[in-house]
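We were asked to recover a plausible sequence for a given structure. The inputs and outputs are reproduced exactly as logged, with field labels preserved.

PROBLEM: sequence recovery
POSITIONS: 310
GIVEN STRUCTURE:
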């Protein structure tokens, strides 16, 4: 069993527009945009990152906004819901705030004794706020959300699978332990991990999901550094998984592999962080391009990347 993985690092999804995506995460949810860059594999598309003040691993939601992209079709083999942690008693405030912004799909529920507020993102993305007692992570409050109700970071992701068995086995190999089960949901967590250390697996009989706007592209797990990442890569490959070589994403190093249930997993390093090319006070303000795409800056700005108004 692996000991290097600490919990979630980031979750990356797809959107149909950069401005609406930026407004939702900064103006509605009150997160900070910590990086404005491009998809390294398709530089005519933004890659936007939202999180706490510095983009701490375990807090960062990222998006590829493909202009006018068709919506994805929910189903099996995907991360269906991304959950954020908020303090105890915060849900009433959030319910009022989401109503003010006419957010769709708002409803309350309880899962494993936790109060939850579900809602949709602008592209039908599935989100939930979970009340957590004692989450010590410092929230970003620069966008007007009071500290006593602000999002602390991720709580968990909820993977929809036709068969949870093989994915449960994989997550146990990655260091997770089964915490609780109820009906068709299995909850796993990493003891002693970061605060974003929970994964829910929901067994469904749905048809396979089709990715599009509102779909999660991949979920990333955190390791401390490149040495730990190489240990994880070797162990996964020795177990039979097809894992990519290490890829430099400027703000972290990444490896990817496909899970038995069809979800794309990434293992990302905590180093070097989002302040490697911007001062912390100005994170996410300027368009940052990877060196291999810097020569395309004028063309990308004038022809492909829509202006984002903060």
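RECOVERED SEQUENCE:
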């Amino acid at each position: 069993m692996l000991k290097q993985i600490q919990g979630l690092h980031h979750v990356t999804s797809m959107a149909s527009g950069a401005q609406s995506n930026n407004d939702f995460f900064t103006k509605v949810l009150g997160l900070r945009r910590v990086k404005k860059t491009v998809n390294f594999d398709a530089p005519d598309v933004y890659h936007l990152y939202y999180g706490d003040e510095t983009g701490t691993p375990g807090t960062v939601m990222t998006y590829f906004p493909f202009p006018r992209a068709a919506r994805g079709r929910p189903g099996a083999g995907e991360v269906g819901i991304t959950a954020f942690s908020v303090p105890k008693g915060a849900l009433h405030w959030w319910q009022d705030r989401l109503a003010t912004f006419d957010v769709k799909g708002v409803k309350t529920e309880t899962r494993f004794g936790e109060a939850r507020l579900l809602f949709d993102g602008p592209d039908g993305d599935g989100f939930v706020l979970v009340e957590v007692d004692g989450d010590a992570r410092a929230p970003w409050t620069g966008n007007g959300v009071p500290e006593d109700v602000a999002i602390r970071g991720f709580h968990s992701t909820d993977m929809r699978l036709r068969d949870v068995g093989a994915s449960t086995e994989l997550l146990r190999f990655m260091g997770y332990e089964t915490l609780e089960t109820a009906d068709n949901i299995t909850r796993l967590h990493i003891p002693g991990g970061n605060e974003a250390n929970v994964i829910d697996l929901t067994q469904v009989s749905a048809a396979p999901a089709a990715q599009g706007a509102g779909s999660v592209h991949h979920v990333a797990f955190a390791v401390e550094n490149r040495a730990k990442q190489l240990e994880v890569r070797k162990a996964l490959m020795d177990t039979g998984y097809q894992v990519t070589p290490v890829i430099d994403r400027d703000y972290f190093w990444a490896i990817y592999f496909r899970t038995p249930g069809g979800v794309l997993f990434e293992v990302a390093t905590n180093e070097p962080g989002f302040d490697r090319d911007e001062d912390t006070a100005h994170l996410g303000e300027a368009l940052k391009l990877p060196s291999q795409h810097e020569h395309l800056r004028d063309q990308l700005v004038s022809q492909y990347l829509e202006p984002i108004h903060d």
